[in-house]
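A student in our group prepared the protein record below, which I am reviewing. I have pasted the whole thing underneath without changing anything:
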Amino acid sequence: MSKELNHHSYELRGNSVRDGSESHNTKHDFSVIIFDMDGLVLDTEKTYCIAWQHASAEMGDKFTEEFCLSMSGLHYQDVEKKLLNACGAGFDLKVFSRLSGNYWHQYVNQQGIPVKKGFYSVLARLNTMEIPFCLATNSRLVNALECLKLAGLEDVFSTLITRDDVKNGKPAPDIFLFAAETLLTPISQCLVVEDSNTGIQAAAKADAISVFIPSVFPVDLTTVDLADYFLNDLDELAQFIYSWPIHPV
Protein backbone atom coordinates (compact mmCIF):
# COMPACT_ATOMS: atom_id res chain seq x y z
CA MET A 1 0.00 0.00 0.00
CA SER A 2 1.41 3.39 -0.96
CA LYS A 3 2.41 5.75 1.84
CA GLU A 4 1.42 8.79 -0.21
CA LEU A 5 -1.75 10.52 1.00
CA ASN A 6 -3.77 12.72 -1.30
CA HIS A 7 -6.19 15.10 0.41
CA HIS A 8 -9.86 14.14 -0.07
CA SER A 9 -9.04 10.74 -1.53
CA TYR A 10 -9.38 8.29 1.37
CA GLU A 11 -12.27 6.67 3.17
CA LEU A 12 -12.56 5.76 6.83
CA ARG A 13 -11.08 2.34 7.52
CA GLY A 14 -10.33 0.64 10.81
CA ASN A 15 -6.67 0.67 11.91
CA SER A 16 -5.38 1.92 8.56
CA VAL A 17 -5.80 4.27 5.66
CA ARG A 18 -6.99 2.58 2.50
CA ASP A 19 -8.03 3.77 -0.92
CA GLY A 20 -11.33 1.92 -0.94
CA SER A 21 -10.13 -0.99 -3.09
CA GLU A 22 -9.71 -3.40 -0.18
CA SER A 23 -12.39 -4.82 2.06
CA HIS A 24 -11.96 -3.83 5.68
CA ASN A 25 -14.95 -4.02 7.96
CA THR A 26 -13.34 -3.35 11.35
CA LYS A 27 -15.25 -0.73 13.32
CA HIS A 28 -15.21 0.18 16.99
CA ASP A 29 -18.35 0.88 18.96
CA PHE A 30 -18.39 3.99 21.11
CA SER A 31 -20.65 5.78 23.57
CA VAL A 32 -19.37 9.36 23.59
CA ILE A 33 -17.27 11.67 21.43
CA ILE A 34 -14.43 13.83 22.76
CA PHE A 35 -13.38 16.75 20.56
CA ASP A 36 -10.15 18.69 20.54
CA MET A 37 -10.64 22.44 20.06
CA ASP A 38 -7.79 24.21 18.23
CA GLY A 39 -7.50 23.16 14.61
CA LEU A 40 -10.39 20.70 14.82
CA VAL A 41 -13.53 22.56 15.98
CA LEU A 42 -12.04 26.03 15.66
CA ASP A 43 -9.76 27.28 12.89
CA THR A 44 -7.36 28.88 15.37
CA GLU A 45 -4.05 27.74 13.90
CA LYS A 46 -4.13 30.56 11.36
CA THR A 47 -4.79 33.15 14.06
CA TYR A 48 -1.91 31.90 16.21
CA CYS A 49 0.47 31.83 13.23
CA ILE A 50 -0.37 35.42 12.34
CA ALA A 51 0.17 36.59 15.92
CA TRP A 52 3.41 34.64 16.37
CA GLN A 53 4.81 35.89 13.08
CA HIS A 54 4.03 39.53 13.88
CA ALA A 55 5.50 39.21 17.36
CA SER A 56 8.66 37.47 16.18
CA ALA A 57 9.12 40.02 13.38
CA GLU A 58 8.91 42.85 15.91
CA MET A 59 11.57 41.05 17.95
CA GLY A 60 13.82 40.86 14.90
CA ASP A 61 13.35 37.34 13.51
CA LYS A 62 10.06 36.49 11.80
CA PHE A 63 9.03 32.86 12.25
CA THR A 64 8.13 30.80 9.21
CA GLU A 65 4.62 29.43 8.85
CA GLU A 66 6.06 25.92 8.96
CA PHE A 67 7.66 26.57 12.35
CA CYS A 68 4.45 28.06 13.72
CA LEU A 69 2.39 25.10 12.55
CA SER A 70 4.88 22.72 14.16
CA MET A 71 3.60 23.99 17.51
CA SER A 72 0.03 22.95 16.66
CA GLY A 73 -1.67 21.18 19.55
CA LEU A 74 1.07 21.88 22.09
CA HIS A 75 0.40 23.25 25.57
CA TYR A 76 1.90 26.70 26.16
CA GLN A 77 4.68 25.27 28.35
CA ASP A 78 5.74 22.99 25.48
CA VAL A 79 5.47 25.91 23.07
CA GLU A 80 7.87 27.86 25.28
CA LYS A 81 10.34 24.95 25.31
CA LYS A 82 10.19 24.77 21.52
CA LEU A 83 10.76 28.52 21.25
CA LEU A 84 13.83 28.37 23.51
CA ASN A 85 15.23 25.40 21.60
CA ALA A 86 14.81 27.23 18.30
CA CYS A 87 15.75 30.76 19.37
CA GLY A 88 18.20 30.18 22.19
CA ALA A 89 18.09 30.59 25.94
CA GLY A 90 18.25 34.37 25.59
CA PHE A 91 14.90 34.56 23.80
CA ASP A 92 12.57 36.77 25.87
CA LEU A 93 9.46 34.66 26.40
CA LYS A 94 7.67 37.36 28.37
CA VAL A 95 8.05 39.93 25.61
CA PHE A 96 7.03 37.41 22.99
CA SER A 97 3.98 36.36 25.00
CA ARG A 98 2.90 39.98 25.47
CA LEU A 99 3.39 40.91 21.83
CA SER A 100 1.80 37.78 20.38
CA GLY A 101 -1.12 38.07 22.80
CA ASN A 102 -1.73 41.67 21.74
CA TYR A 103 -1.56 40.79 18.04
CA TRP A 104 -3.82 37.78 18.54
CA HIS A 105 -6.51 39.73 20.37
CA GLN A 106 -6.34 42.51 17.80
CA TYR A 107 -6.84 40.03 14.97
CA VAL A 108 -9.63 37.89 16.46
CA ASN A 109 -11.55 40.87 17.82
CA GLN A 110 -11.71 42.17 14.26
CA GLN A 111 -12.07 38.88 12.39
CA GLY A 112 -13.54 36.48 14.93
CA ILE A 113 -12.55 32.79 14.97
CA PRO A 114 -13.95 30.62 12.17
CA VAL A 115 -15.65 27.32 13.00
CA LYS A 116 -14.17 24.45 11.01
CA LYS A 117 -16.09 23.22 8.00
CA GLY A 118 -18.40 20.35 8.87
CA PHE A 119 -18.67 20.95 12.61
CA TYR A 120 -22.29 22.05 12.47
CA SER A 121 -23.13 18.91 10.49
CA VAL A 122 -21.46 16.76 13.15
CA LEU A 123 -23.24 18.68 15.91
CA ALA A 124 -26.63 18.19 14.26
CA ARG A 125 -25.97 14.46 13.86
CA LEU A 126 -24.91 14.09 17.51
CA ASN A 127 -27.95 15.95 18.79
CA THR A 128 -30.31 13.94 16.57
CA MET A 129 -28.79 10.65 17.71
CA GLU A 130 -28.48 11.88 21.32
CA ILE A 131 -24.78 10.99 21.52
CA PRO A 132 -23.01 12.68 24.46
CA PHE A 133 -19.95 14.76 23.63
CA CYS A 134 -17.47 17.11 25.24
CA LEU A 135 -14.47 19.29 24.48
CA ALA A 136 -10.99 18.37 25.78
CA THR A 137 -8.30 20.93 25.05
CA ASN A 138 -4.71 21.69 25.98
CA SER A 139 -5.77 25.32 26.41
CA ARG A 140 -6.46 26.83 29.81
CA LEU A 141 -10.10 27.36 30.75
CA VAL A 142 -10.04 31.14 30.39
CA ASN A 143 -8.52 30.87 26.90
CA ALA A 144 -10.88 28.11 25.79
CA LEU A 145 -13.94 30.07 26.91
CA GLU A 146 -12.70 33.17 25.11
CA CYS A 147 -12.10 31.26 21.87
CA LEU A 148 -15.48 29.55 21.98
CA LYS A 149 -17.22 32.89 22.56
CA LEU A 150 -15.37 34.51 19.66
CA ALA A 151 -16.52 31.64 17.46
CA GLY A 152 -20.11 31.78 18.69
CA LEU A 153 -19.92 28.34 20.31
CA GLU A 154 -20.03 29.37 23.97
CA ASP A 155 -23.26 27.42 24.59
CA VAL A 156 -22.45 24.27 22.59
CA PHE A 157 -20.30 22.25 25.03
CA SER A 158 -21.91 21.51 28.38
CA THR A 159 -18.76 19.63 29.41
CA LEU A 160 -15.40 21.33 28.90
CA ILE A 161 -12.12 19.71 29.98
CA THR A 162 -9.02 21.93 29.90
CA ARG A 163 -5.36 21.90 30.86
CA ASP A 164 -6.38 23.35 34.23
CA ASP A 165 -8.12 20.09 35.14
CA VAL A 166 -5.12 17.78 34.91
CA LYS A 167 -1.50 17.51 35.97
CA ASN A 168 -0.13 16.78 32.49
CA GLY A 169 -1.33 18.09 29.15
CA LYS A 170 -1.30 16.26 25.84
CA PRO A 171 0.58 14.19 24.66
CA ALA A 172 0.05 12.67 28.11
CA PRO A 173 -3.31 10.85 28.34
CA ASP A 174 -4.56 12.75 31.41
CA ILE A 175 -7.04 15.04 29.66
CA PHE A 176 -8.83 12.21 27.88
CA LEU A 177 -8.86 9.98 30.95
CA PHE A 178 -10.38 12.81 32.97
CA ALA A 179 -12.92 13.48 30.21
CA ALA A 180 -13.98 9.82 30.26
CA GLU A 181 -14.29 9.92 34.04
CA THR A 182 -16.35 13.11 33.86
CA LEU A 183 -18.65 11.57 31.25
CA LEU A 184 -18.95 8.39 33.35
CA THR A 185 -17.84 6.33 30.38
CA PRO A 186 -15.02 3.76 30.02
CA ILE A 187 -12.18 5.25 28.00
CA SER A 188 -12.43 2.28 25.61
CA GLN A 189 -15.88 3.56 24.60
CA CYS A 190 -14.71 7.14 23.98
CA LEU A 191 -14.17 8.30 20.42
CA VAL A 192 -11.47 10.98 20.45
CA VAL A 193 -11.31 13.28 17.43
CA GLU A 194 -8.00 15.10 16.96
CA ASP A 195 -6.11 17.07 14.33
CA SER A 196 -2.53 16.83 15.62
CA ASN A 197 0.14 14.27 16.42
CA THR A 198 0.16 15.54 20.00
CA GLY A 199 -3.53 14.77 20.40
CA ILE A 200 -3.41 11.38 18.71
CA GLN A 201 -0.49 10.39 20.94
CA ALA A 202 -2.57 11.30 23.99
CA ALA A 203 -5.55 9.32 22.70
CA ALA A 204 -3.39 6.27 22.01
CA LYS A 205 -1.81 6.41 25.47
CA ALA A 206 -5.28 6.65 27.01
CA ASP A 207 -6.47 3.61 24.99
CA ALA A 208 -9.31 5.62 23.48
CA ILE A 209 -10.62 5.11 19.95
CA SER A 210 -8.98 7.82 17.86
CA VAL A 211 -9.91 9.67 14.67
CA PHE A 212 -7.27 11.79 12.98
CA ILE A 213 -8.54 14.73 10.90
CA PRO A 214 -5.39 16.68 9.98
CA SER A 215 -5.29 20.48 10.02
CA VAL A 216 -1.72 20.74 8.74
CA PHE A 217 -0.52 19.44 5.38
CA PRO A 218 1.25 17.43 4.11
CA VAL A 219 -0.28 14.78 6.32
CA ASP A 220 1.98 13.27 8.98
CA LEU A 221 2.15 9.56 8.17
CA THR A 222 3.30 8.60 11.66
CA THR A 223 0.10 10.13 13.05
CA VAL A 224 -2.00 8.28 10.47
CA ASP A 225 -0.38 5.00 11.52
CA LEU A 226 -0.98 5.73 15.22
CA ALA A 227 -4.64 6.69 14.82
CA ASP A 228 -7.45 4.14 14.55
CA TYR A 229 -9.12 6.11 11.78
CA PHE A 230 -8.16 8.78 9.27
CA LEU A 231 -10.65 11.25 7.77
CA ASN A 232 -10.25 14.33 5.64
CA ASP A 233 -12.69 16.63 7.40
CA LEU A 234 -15.62 16.89 9.80
CA ASP A 235 -18.15 16.47 7.00
CA GLU A 236 -16.82 12.93 6.56
CA LEU A 237 -17.08 12.37 10.30
CA ALA A 238 -20.74 13.40 10.21
CA GLN A 239 -21.38 10.88 7.43
CA PHE A 240 -19.68 8.01 9.20
CA ILE A 241 -21.07 8.59 12.70
CA TYR A 242 -24.44 7.42 11.50
CA SER A 243 -23.03 4.05 10.35
CA TRP A 244 -20.88 3.32 13.40
CA PRO A 245 -22.09 1.01 16.21
CA ILE A 246 -23.21 3.12 19.16
CA HIS A 247 -22.82 1.62 22.64
CA PRO A 248 -25.52 2.94 25.01
CA VAL A 249 -24.18 4.99 27.92
User: Anything to note?
Assistant: The radius of gyration is 18 Å. The longest strand covers residues 190-194. Residues 45-111 form one domain. The chain has ten helices and six strands.
